[in-house]
Design brief:
This protein is α/β, with parallel strands linked by helices and 304 residues long. The protein is 21% helix and 30% strand.
Amino acid sequence: MKANGTHRSTIFVENATILAHQAYPAEQYVLRFQAPETARRAEPGSFVHIRCGDALPMRRPLSIMRVSAEEGWVECLYKVVGKGTALLAKCGSGEQISVMGPIGTGFSPQAARSRPLLIGGGVGIPPMVFLADRLRQQQGIQPLAILGSEVPFPFKTRPSNLMLPGMPDGVIATMPLLDDWDIPCRLASGQGYAGCFEGFVTELADHWLQSLERSEKDKVEIHACGPTPMLAATARLAQKHDLPCQVALEEYMACAVGGCAGCVVKVETDQGPAMKRVCVDGPVFDANSVFPPDKPATKAGLFH
């Protein structure tokens, strides 16, 4: 079934069959389901709106982490944070769930920026994995992913097989999937996990950026997804190094197709401030439009 309305002509509602549902520490789950139309049209940064159970008609938005257009499956990483995701966590392989997607405007990397820096925090990791997968298929593009979490990562970390100049000594832990794709990745956390940088993802990114000559830095574009404070810090990092930056915002939403305007964010435009819907106008925005230079960037001041 195809949804109706402006900017919604590529959103489908599918009865998806769960193919796998893997649990990880800290109530994190990787959900894979068969949804061919969504898989064929999804772009890095887009998301799905899932009905979590018959007892809860309101859907929940989940970022897309991986897709296979050929095999027709979609994979999402989520964390149990409320009634909806708690119900979803109880679903098993073979069960059907109603999925609406793909939704939203995704990332738009510049071809001239051959060293994209992907920064993901917590449940902001999935869009970075999706973007990394897409970028690795492009000739001459060398992405770097810096991922952070304050709970155990939703994968078993290991020392990276890929050398990465500009990293602090001992920071060698990686996400195995990205390492297997030959994409350098380093991890950050304040929890003292082995091989991880002790601190914020933006601090580790700053350390790497400072190691680059200006000619190399000019090849970098930042893409990020995570909690609002992390995105604000990422915007300041990009401003410090004079780099373009796109951020995927996280926000509560009801309809997810632009009808309820319950997920609006204040954005600076050439015509002045405007209210944009995270679901369909985003979730990806230019960082400077959401976190303008020299202005405070708190959630209370940004979202209404």
